[in-house]
Amino acid sequence: MSDEFDVIVIGGGPAGENVAARAVRGGLTAAVVENRLLGGECSYWACIPSKALLRPVELAAEVRRVPGLTIGPIEAGKVLARRDEAVAHYDDSGQLRWLDGVPATLLRGAGRLDGPRRVRVTAPDGSERTVTARHAVVLATGSTPAVPPVPGLREANPWTSHEVTAATSVPERLAVIGGGVVACEMAQAMHGLGARQTTMLVRGDRLLPRMEPFASELLAASFADAGIDVRFGTGAVAVERPEPGGKVTIRLPDGPPLEADELLVATGRKPATTQVGLDTVGLEPGRYVEVDDSMRATGVDGGWLYAVGDANGRTLLTHMGKYQARVCGDVIAARAKGEPDDLPALRDTADGRGAPQVVFTDPQICAVGLTEAAAREAGFRIRTVEYDLGSVSGAYLLGDGYRGRAKAVVDEDRRVLLGVTFAGPGVAELLHAATIAVTGEVPLERLWHAVPSFPTVSEIWLRLLETYGL
Ligand SMILES: Cc1cc2nc3c(=O)[nH]c(=O)nc-3n(C[C@H](O)[C@H](O)[C@H](O)COP(=O)(O)OP(=O)(O)OC[C@H]3O[C@@H](n4cnc5c(N)ncnc54)[C@H](O)[C@@H]3O)c2cc1C
Ligand SMILES: NC(=O)c1ccc[n+]([C@@H]2O[C@H](COP(=O)([O-])OP(=O)(O)OC[C@H]3O[C@@H](n4cnc5c(N)ncnc54)[C@H](O)[C@@H]3O)[C@@H](O)[C@H]2O)c1
Predict the structure, then answer these.
(1) ipTM, interface predicted TM-score of the complex
(2) What is the 3-state secondary structure (H, E, C) of 328-395?
(3) Among 267, 270, 361, which is best to mutate for testing ligand 2, by the most ligand atoms less than 8 A from CB?
(4) What angle do CA 84, 16, 320 make, to 5 degrees?
(5) Which protein residue's CA is at the shortest distance from atom 2 of ligand 2?
(6) Mean pLDDT computed over 50-75
(7) Any bridge partners for residue 271, and if so which?
């Protein structure tokens, strides 16, 4: 096997895989170094299993809202079995076949930079080899869960996103530290699959603090209805678990301690860049790798190092990592061939403006662009419009007691949308229309002619524009 490739990608998650595919499409050779499973965190311990666990919970809630249908308890065992199928039983041979077809080479093992354009790969059997990149090395090593320094927490061996998405049973009593996306999605999944007591310890005053406040409120109301105990302004001050895998006691700032059978820590991520040899190329290990809009790492002589996906910290979402990967693979190919490297498609212009995101809870929460607070902070002259989604015929027909809301943030100087947020059952598929409107900076007067079909939830677009005054 060759020891030289045009491009070497360290990390075979969704971002890394896509860099390799685009570079090969551009006429280059590529190798992907992966030390666990090709497909990355997203395929086995994040997006895919979490959504497989949430789907029946969401569907059961939808069915319960429609009179005339009855539904029994969810059979957690069957849901966990379907999750196992969704993660291909933690076997990446399907992904390998895909990579072979690209075609690109898999180097199974841990990759580490070893000076400019060199990567040392330690195979699972401990053997080592050094491979060289003719044009570029791309770091796509992702991120790992951050565990806060609470006394006793690490020793208690809590669940992180990794363990909860791979759970083989549902704990009777689950405690969750955090109020972000992982905490909300996984608290709902475990509660819906049968946890008898689910308690969330949220240090702030609302769930999903980066979303519009109304979305946080709707979600909190839904959790309260479902019997999830959400406690704001609190957190763990100490954790005890005398028996490995046994009962956990969580000491709180005040009041009696909380007892649980399992504890999930969902307090954000840290970059997986401590063990990748950043020090050999003049960068500081353990930090997000700062990149320019062509995904090239800043501060590295020769401009041969790139970073995509979670590893650069721009936006920790699969679709954004894959978008960056397309930019990166294409720009590397253009530069290698001496072609223009500054075309619009060769720059990341979507990060930093409020990337589209769907939180797959019930209600679903999704948003793109700027929230009202972010737009004000950025100095825009704005007006906001809100509308009750339950008053839209298409939403009403989805089920009784449909609760949802939408909000648009309008740039008053240009009369275009800066951001849109939807909260409600089944709103995820509304988001891409908003993404097109915001990214395309479609004038409201033009948007008026995009007529939504009756009776769909998309009629919310008409109602928002009417509320604005069109
Ligand atoms: C529970 C959960 C649910 C999520 N749900 C969603 C969702 O619904 N939608 C969404 O858009 N995002 C979601 N995310 C975020 C998403 O998982 C990440 O943004 C995405 O996985 C990042 O992709 P990546 O390719 O950058 O990194 P990863 O997917 O983390 O892949 C990195 C790969 O690099 C490998 N690697 C690391 N170091 C080395 C090394 N030294 N040598 C060789 N290989 C190495 C790892 O083994 C891994 O396979 C979720 C995250 C979590 C935790
Ligand atoms: N559906 C999706 O798109 C999806 C699903 C899951 C995860 N993700 C992505 O994965 C990433 C990680 O998710 P996450 O939920 O772990 O992170 P997050 O940043 O969304 O939320 C972390 C939460 O933990 C809190 N927190 C931080 N430190 C704490 C501490 N010491 N004590 C108590 N609380 C603390 C924060 O205030 C925040 O509310 C996010 O960027 C998210 O976008 C996306």
Answers:
(1) 0.98
(2) HHHHHHHHHCCCCCCCHHHCCCCCCCCCCEEECCCCEEEEEECCHHHHHHCCCCEEEEEEEHHHCHHH
(3) 267
(4) 85
(5) 359
(6) 96
(7) 143
All domains of the chain in start order, with CATH = 4-39+92-144+270-350 (3.50.50.60), 154-267 (3.50.50.60), 363-468 (3.30.390.30)
Listing from the earlier edge strand, what are the strands of the sheet with 229-232? 229-232, 197-202, 173-177, 262-265
Compute the distance between CA of residue 164 and CA of residue 219 in angstroms, rounded to an integer.
21
Instruction: Specify whether the CB–CB gap between 134 and 118 falls below 8 A.
Output: no
pLDDT reading at 2 higher than 90: no
Ligand 1 lined by 318 (C-beta under 6 Å) = yes
Please tell me the total number of residues recorded for the chain in this structure.
Answer: 470
Per-residue model confidence as pLDDT tens digits over 11-58: 999 999 999 999 999 999 999 999 999 999 999 999 999 999 999 999
State the greatest distance between any 2 C-alpha atoms of the chain, in Å, as a whole number. Answer: 68
Mean pLDDT of the chain: 97
In terms of Cβ atoms closer than 10 Å to its own Cβ (0-12, 13-18, 19+), residue 65 is middle
Q: Where are the alpha helices (DSSP H) in 72-118?
A: 76-86, 93-101
Q: 224 C-alpha vs ligand 1 centroid, how far in Å?
A: 31
Closest ligand 1 atom to Cα of 164: 1
